[in-house]
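Q: Can someone sanity-check these two? First one:
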Amino acid sequence: MMNGSTGPGSGGRGRVRAATAALGLLAGALSATAVGASPAAALTPPVAITADDLTTWQTNGIVWAMAAGDGVVYAGGTFSTLRPPSAAPGTGEQPAVNFAAFDAATGAPTDCSLSFTVSSGTATVRSLALSPDGDTLYAGGQFGAVNGVGVSNIAAIDTRTCTVRTSFKIGVSATVRALAVTDDTVYLGGDFTTVGGQPRGHFAAVSRANASLLPFTADADEVGRAVELTPDGRNVLLGGDFFRINGTSTHALAVVNPTTGQLTTSYPGFIHDNSTVQDITTDASGFYTANEGTGGGVFDGRIALDLSDFQQRWRDTCLGATQAVAVYSGVLYSGSHAHDCASMGAFPDQPRKHLLAQSVDDPKLLPWFPDTNDGIGEPVGPRVMTQTGSGGRHYLWVGGEFTTVNSRPQQGLTRFADGPDTGAPWVPNVSLSTLTPGRIDVNWQTSFDTDDGELTYRIYKDGSSTPVHTTTGYSVFWDRPQLTWTDTDVAPGETHSYRITASDGVNTSAKSPAQSATVASTTEAYPARVRADGASLYWRYDEGTSTFAHDSSRNLNNGFMRNGPAYRQTPAAVSGPSTAIGLNGTDEYVYSNRQHPQPARFTIETWIRTTTTRGGKIVGFGNLTQQNSTRHDKHIYLRNDGRLVFGVQSGGARTIATPGAYNDGQWHHVVATQGPLGQGMALYVDGQLRASNVLVSGNESQPGYWRVGGDNLAGWPNRPTSNFFEGRIDETAIYPTALSASQISAHYALRNG
């Protein structure tokens, strides 16, 4: 199915590991560093392939199999035509019946044209592998003829003449899904139960010379999906759906003798019963599996195992089935539809990501994030990977069901190279703060680059072309922390403007739009008191159009604004130069960049102004960010009748509610606290205690994200019509303690300055 080799300039001759041995996160928020900090590199090591897709011809269907060598990439699948890069379906097409060959360096088809057909049903090519000498391409799948020459689900192609080798012919009873080749043997796996008229349960071996069936017997009770040779040729690695090999328990993965098929290493209980191995690849020290699961609690990620003892080196626990793996220069690249990697400290459940990278020594996700869509078929996006060197460059090819690559139309095939890197980072989002007299705090949301985590930021002041400050910061798409630099070379009453660029060392973003601020001469009373009382997160919503909610608490707990709320709404809740945001009650909200541990004691403080009769969540704590949470508590929400509710999960949903309504179009100060037993839950509005329950001191013991303006309310008492709040919100703060009644009253009293 997949092929790949593992070193710079490697030829990538299919699944030929016996011929030659292969060559062999997340950072937290960074505060500003000194001017002249070391600049970022174009790619963050050990990543050695850019995320910039190259122009490549397309298929009109699914690519299931690829092999590569000597600068040629072979692709097989279920398709009937090719078309040029950027061409829409039906445009500029040429026939290609389930097979095509391409120049690895240009992405254009070669003149090798083969047609894989079947007399009834749908023909498909499911596996391709090159011989060690590159002279023969072996193809497996479900087909009965190649260019009219009769075959039975397996064929050998002379790569020099692009013709069928008629000396290699044997009947295989069903689909061949995996192939591996040595100097004298072809190993195959699939749906079949007989080969050459002899019983063979889903795995078999035949002679390269004449396709005669060999004694190798590794009978599986379920489908075989992957076959791989160890680099020394002394073992065969098998993957699939099976639970037994030759009658011995081993689920989805097995190591067998290359001559007899005898089981040498088994893996009972090692992989979840509802998970399978879809692909296997190797390098000089290990082998790596791509795993797919069905149902709850399954295993969908990648496993790294050592070749020295065939035992696990690491496994990741991302959810979203992995279909293909390839190793290059110490990095494991994978094709999947990963949607939840929270268990690994990466992104929570969200829209799917289809291409990932990890060090062969560490499962943490590396900053390499090109992407496809799910596409057609099942759909799951990428299905296969291969790689080869050509013209001094190394190319990683990806095939599958996708119809877009990096958000642009591209079907079935795409490719990436080890350079040049051409993609610039996103333009930084900038917000200025003047809470401290005699200075301006320049805050920005770190940018994102698809193949570099460490970026260099340059700050330009008052239109100058020379930066006043340079620093670096690490970011990935799910973690874009806030950075801050303070300009003290200013005086009260002066107005200054700032712009920022982000660079990966080769490519630099455009400058951010200019943001201006006037240096304060006095301290604003309300925000000063919020900070003095220990807010750990404080969003004032003073940004212009961006996704950035900067944190004024000094703790860099910035937020993401989703779906474009109305910015800089006035009048704000508190007097002074600050503004509010307006939310539409449908899909607009803000969530914290960081995942936070469960707060045993906490205070939620915010201001609201609304006339809605559909209710909605105002502030809450949930386990997801880009969709409604499945775990949700520690929240304040508005009922349809305008009454406010504070709720936590503590042996069930526990709530307290105000006796009066607050959807009267006026600004209201809303504060919820939870302290120890005897203090419990309290809900204050406009400086006064409105509801309490001193007996409830616990809440759900799960980490999560603070969310403002909307999230799931399923299962909560008096659930409103809407999960999302319609109205204005301002001055949201979270505290790690339960504020006292006097503190809350003092905050409310400072609203007018």
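And here is the second, same format, sequence then tokens:
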Amino acid sequence: MKRLPQFFPILNTLKTYSFGIFKADLIAGTTVGVVLIPQAIAYALLMGVPPIYGLYACLIPLIIYALLGTSTQLSIGPVAVTAILIMSGISQLAIPFSDTFVHLVIYTGLLIGIVQVLMSIFKMGFLTNLISQPVISGFISAAAIIIIISQIKAAFGISMPRYDQSYEILMHLAQNFSEINVYTFLLFVTAIILILLFKRWKKTFPGALIVLILGALATYQFGLNDLGVAIIGEVPKGLPSFVIPYADYQTLLNLLPTVFTVTLIGFIGSIGIAKSFEMKNRDHTVRANQELLALGISKILGAFFLAVPSSGSYSRSAINDQQGAKTTIASLVTAVLIIASLLFFTKFFYYIPKSVLAAIIVLSVLGLLDFKGAKMLLKLRRREFLIMVITFLCTLFLSIEIGILIGVLLSFIFMLYYSSRPHVAELVNIPGTEYYRNYERFPEASKAAKYLILRFDNQLFFGNTNYFRETIMAALQKRETQPEFFILDMTNMHDIDSTGLHTLYNVNAYLSSNNVQLLISGAIGPVRDFLKRSGFTEQLGAAHYFMTITEAVYFTAHPDQHPSEKQIALQHNTQRSIMD
């Protein structure tokens, strides 16, 4: 019972809850609900399912997250990126808007929830770190363009067969431009202009909902649906029924790539949004593994009530924050508003033009185009800019899954390459100080003939042992006079594996055969423990370990004055972790 509030953070919220806090949550939750209704309908269509399923995704998931979530501002529900991922993956297995497609989308939500809960149980939130920021930026920017292009049919009112590639849609538009429906296109443009004007007037004003209502009224009043303007049509009234999602084993296997992609991308986005508001407000703590649990259970239970997959939305979370949301009770208020809409207002959705929904989607995803991030990477780190561009192009022209996969693989290739050839510095004493720095940065400093100091700025592991050995040999061969001592500064060497240890033995043997004494300086605790367990400490000799380079250099001039029996540089622990 004492640990119950850790599992249900809302219990801690209720201990200090007051009417003043509820008033703030009520305003925020209502505002988010007003914004969420048109977005949920629009993103459902983007996902390839009827609009009602977008609203269903705003019930059980919101309620469960309110009970289990640790972010007071995060607003979950249908989002554009998740929608396009689902559409891209499942459209390979079924026709969008068909009963089979809808069933597979709901079943996918169940699988995503199960994976997220398992990740939470096994504390695997760290796996989201496998996708770097350049990969995410490249993928999301490409996804935004794909989403915008996917709305051409609804925005122009043009009949169009199903295409797998975005460029095919653009080509079809160019070849059949004369077939566009003028009324549909005018509604699309007018909706964009009005939403932008409302946003410029007041950012928190529910411009999208107002434009949706105006569009529906105009369609009803002037009979625009009889003039070729596509509308939503009948939306079922009432709350979702209970279902048990099911699919055969082969279908499950076919869905796994989509499940894992949406799981990682969805959680990275949600936790990123939650952390950003945690840092901004500093009034709560976001726990990553608890967030995984909350998002996972919300999807699992939501799937039994016809909810399509949902994730955290930055725009709605920002509105939640701007309107003063203090707790997750605001999400419960939003859910109540959605329930009221499903019970009493679905008949008003009939005349909503799809072109207006397309305008809402287009404006929602424009902010996902990360031009600023690309410019920054080009200035700061060109290899990461290259990763972002390649991910962007592969996502745009091949597929979303392939784009992410290539981006992740490219990130690891670059990481492994630079880990296999890490930075190595030959250190020299800066005149008049006790500091030892890179000779290439301080060429005015002179090298000592008696010793050579190298600093290896990475762990010593199987991927860079050859480079380690060759670098040492090359540095010694460059010397006109063979030094008597080789000082290896291990300050930045945070780990050694068995291959690295074997190489260290070989290097010591090579130095000994050339009458050069190896000295080790600045080895950190875990490395000292490893060297002690391996027996290398005893083989090298206790007198040859030092806490600082200064002490090692002093030893080269006074080898008889070194009190080896009192060295703190030899301190080590015998306790080990199960994986150490």
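A (reply): Looked at the second one. Residues 249-281 form the longest helix (33 residues). The chain has a mean pLDDT of 87.
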